[in-house]
Amino acid sequence: MIKLFSIFIIGAGLWACSSVNTLSVNSSTEKLNASYEANSHIDSLIKPYKDSLSVEMNVVIAEATTDFIVERPGSNLGNWVSDAIFVNQTRTVRLSEPVFVLLNTGGLRASLNKGPITTGDIFKLMPFDNELVWVKLPMSVLPDIQAYLLKSGGEPIANARVENGVLKLNGGKESASHFWVITSDYLKNGGDKMTFFAKSEDVVLTGKVIRNCLIEEAKLQGVLVEDTVKRITF
Questions:
Q1: By the 8 A CB rule, do 100 and 157 touch?
Q2: What is the pLDDT of residues 38-55, one digit of tens each?
Q3: Which residues, listed in sequence order, are joined to residue 133 by a DSSP beta bridge?
């Protein structure tokens, strides 16, 4: 192939440099074989990584006693994911201001079926490498989030609830002037039209991928904790 390419380049150069001589080229067409053999050496290099990844994805990390599915305005899957994030992020943090978790329903890409839960199942649930962030907002933004939840039909939340269309923060102090939202970097940057995050007064980057957080909490739980309480009512 390299020889043929070189001949083509040389021939093209002769044609361009001469306006008098005529270059006659005899060529033949050779059909490429669609079943071209894969390079066995490259395959041998890739195989250990492929096998290792396959083993890791099949590791059982927990068990589900029921199907965890996603739906609006809320679901046991949305509750589990948001609760797992809240617990993971606040386990060693002393909260002086209201804090709640807000995610997006569209970010949950698969259900968790009853039975053994593997690492691969969590990857299917959360295939993106989105990171967790803490966003500080003034209380004046709370109605904007409330309006968003009502318009979207509901999103996964933890340590908060919407009762009769009113967003309330669990443990929220009446004197508090600000609150924190634990969310993804995607949403913090305005994803899914969550433009209210543009009014943030502080942002803390955790450097932690959401998926890894869920894997950690699933391992700690052993049996996934199911919560079927409807956290959003209109």
A1: yes
A2: 456 656 656 676 677 788
A3: 183, 205
